[in-house]
């Protein structure tokens, strides 16, 4: 599952994993984990060599979810994820997770195009930029971060441009991905649509 920031893909991925009894990996958390580690070490997210070294030593079990969900972490993650050496360092970890017996759900920005090009089902989740910006703003407000909505709008546009324009593994729908626009969907409706897509493509029935 791939998609844009605040499109709902993470929530949908978690729901799909629960519905079909599969393990789930938020690959964006890996990049955010690298970004936070770089910042805490006093490094520059733009330093490809330093970020790659951090990525090669990353232990997913040590990632602090509270730390990686801030606006600062998200902006830094977009920068470190643009480094080919960082993406290569995390490639094998993601492939091993995807290849486990019984299957898995992975969400990110290059899963269907790079990490799992032979996945049984590929979804690309998106929503209108203004709607995504407001969703992200409300999420940060709920966590106690005092960030102006116009700041989020600007950061989201910059993030989209970096993710889609990077030379290595740019964010884009796989040629055989099903596009899921959540702009006018409630989260329950979006999840329901995603579950139906997976069932139709694989014949699998939800277990939960």
From TrEMBL:
Cytidylate kinase domain segment(s): 1-198
The organism's place on the tree of life at top rank: Bacteria
UniProtKB keywords: ATP-binding, Cytoplasm, Kinase, Nucleotide-binding, Transferase
Protein residues bound to ATP: 3-11
Primary localization class, coarse: cytoplasm
Reactions catalysed, as given in the entry: dCMP + ATP = dCDP + ADP; CMP + ATP = CDP + ADP
InterPro entries: Cytidylate_kin, Cytidylate_kinase_dom, P-loop_NTPase
Record-stated family: Belongs to the cytidylate kinase family. Type 1 subfamily.
Protein name (record): Cytidylate kinase
Gene name per UniProt: cmk
């Amino acid at each position: 599952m791939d998609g844009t920031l605040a499109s709902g893909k993470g929530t949908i991925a978690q729901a799909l994993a629960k519905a079909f009894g599969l393990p789930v990996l938020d690959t964006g958390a890996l990049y955010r984990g690298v970004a936070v580690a770089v910042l805490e070490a006093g490094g520059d997210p733009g330093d490809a060599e330093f970020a790659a070294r951090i990525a090669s030593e990353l232990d997913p079990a040590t990632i602090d979810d509270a730390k990686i969900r801030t606006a600062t972490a998200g902006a830094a993650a977009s920068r470190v994820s643009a480094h080919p050496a960082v993406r290569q360092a995390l490639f094998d970890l993601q492939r091993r997770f995807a290849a486990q017996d019984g299957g898995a759900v992975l969400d990110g920005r290059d899963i269907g195009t790079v990490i799992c090009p032979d996945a049984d089902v590929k979804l690309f989740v998106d929503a209108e930029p203004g709607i995504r910006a407001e969703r992200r703003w409300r999420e940060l407000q709920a966590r106690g971060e005092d960030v102006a909505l116009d700041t989020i709008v600007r950061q989201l546009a910059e993030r989209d441009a970096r993710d889609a324009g990077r030379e290595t593994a740019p964010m884009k729908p796989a040629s055989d991905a099903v596009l899921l626009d959540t702009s006018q969907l409630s989260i329950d409706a979006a999840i329901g649509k995603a579950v139906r897509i997976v069932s139709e493509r694989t014949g699998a029935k939800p277990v939960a």
